[in-house]
Amino acid sequence: MSKNFNRWPEHVNPRPDRTASAPYNFIPLPEKVVAAVGDACDLPSHDRYDRNKHSGYFEVLLIAKSPLYVRCPLTIKEFLRQEVDSENEKKLPFRQQVKNPPHFFYTQDPAIPVIPGSSLRGMLRSLVEVISYGKPGKVGKQEKIFYRAVAAKGDDPLKGPYEDIIGRLGKNVKAGYLIKKGEKWHIRPAKRPAGCGWPEKGAYIRVRKEEIEGKVPGLIPFDSNQYQPQYHAVSFEAAVIKGRQGRYLKIEKIGPVSKGYTYKGVLVCTGNMKETGDEKTKSPRARYALVLEEDINASLVKINEQAVEDYLDALTPFQTEPPFDEKMGCLIEGRPVFYVENNGEALFFGHCPNFRVPALNQAENRASTPLDFLPKALRRPEDIDYAEAIFGFTREGGEIRSMLDRGVLDKEPEQGDKRRAYSGRVFVTDASLEEGQTDI
Fold it and tell me: Among candidates 291, 244, 241, which has minimal Cα distance to 263?
């Protein structure tokens, strides 16, 4: 094997214009897994010493070359205090709350910090996986991958796929109102501006902020430091104006529905894009989205059930805060929603016109997970790499089923079978602070 190592991928420093900014991007996936043994049954047994193998220990001095912190767990007394008196705990200053102890990990004396052996063992295993061309560790199969590429540059690899879905300048995006029937979600399409004889080509009206700010009771303007997403039911009057760039729609009067103006709809106020600015920064947003009232003559559009499941699995903290639902995000009956229809179903949807879309797993027509991007050849459970041979492993039910389905196993391994689980062959003790340290 060592003769072939010169042909294995090696780290190459990136060009100055290709420097990676995300951690761990510099570790490439192996082209194939280097196996420690041909079969799990060839692993050494734990009930005897093998004369042809070695045993012993390493004593190692660790030097913290950069700041290091391992949080200390709660004592039983602290845990019980937190559980029994949770309401009063929340009222205490930050550092006095049990959940925020600043102590470095210790076993006996808080003044003597310790790096737990479990942390060191995990670090060693990760390094062994990398340097021995092992299988990547646990890769998530629950997290759903969503993205959006609004105003992305031409060389952005997500620009094309995103525009394929929502269309150039969002021309594929439609608007409507959410309706729930049993456990299924549907959308009643909203009236389109063109249906009112207006020059707006999209599914909703893009309203300039100067036309409405200060005129809708309760509306928090984009530039306000208290801004948050909002929905406002409104009535309004509009007129078609001829300008230098052609005909356009102008909102002449607007207010609550009680004003009784001719046209009705819901003003959708999404993010103001000031997340990275300070209090004095002005919002780059210049327009609100005004969704017209329901088109009662339009047929309901069913939301794809898998699309709903993927959306709920990928809710961000922002999507669980008011005015959204803590568990359902923007899926609130009667609320406006933006969507893209595909084969008679709403396959993509969100609370704003430029909503996030899933990175689709085309084979299963669902949102992709990180595991989908890991080649199957690098995650075969029958391959025992050096990290597993040294630190041990336990095969999950799905891994055993995979081996059974592919004929690698003829029956499910029993308890004690090395193909089912294997204990580690190394033990890592805690790292205790050397005496005489003055700057910890």
Answer: 291
